[in-house]
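Below is how a single chain appears once it has passed through the pipeline. First comes the sequence as given, then the structure the pipeline wrote out for it. We keep one example in the README because the format questions we get most often are answered faster by looking than by reading.
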Amino acid sequence: MPDIMAAHRHSLSKAELRKSNKPIMEKRRRARINQCLDELKSLILEAMKKDPARHAKLEKADILEMTVKHLQDLQRHQMRSAVSADPSVISKFHSGFNECATEVSRYVSTIDGVDDGVRRRLLGHLTGCLSGLNQVIPLASARLPGDVNNNGHRSAFVAVSRHSPPASPGSELSVQVPEPLPSPSPLVPGLLMQVPRPSTSTGADMWRPW
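Resulting structure:
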């Protein structure tokens, strides 16, 4: 009996200790967030070549929004630079992604035990990713000679089809999605796309997103 009472008092003391430490931990957490935001503010203003004196009172949301936009611009610039250095990189990238997305689509459409809602969300997510990829690299594949990739196979990219998701509001970028395969899919028909058949000699030129 004394042991039980002692254990009960010990558990109460631990709970009380956690409760008393909670305000301290919350204060430290907020301090870390504010410190990181201050550092991020300095970095983003320097990167965007803005005068810190004119942006001394930026809100936290403004700092985060500026950072997101800056990173998106960097990503677009890097992708365009890669395409300029090697025009075939866009074909390799799309071929690899399309092959993976098609394989996932075929697999989840035939496997048993997968909830229909999960299946639809997964295929819808992949379709959205395809749209996002084309927004990051707008019409890059159209600039390749004859839309033929480095393996000599013609790319299957076409203009937006009825299966493609709508573009985001205010977007100035055209969206392209691959053409659907002849075999229909009851879930997301636009995801079952044609992909360039890889060369039988080597698969080293195929870019894969893993």
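The CA atoms of residues 99 and 195 lie 6 Å apart.

See the next section for the split statistics.
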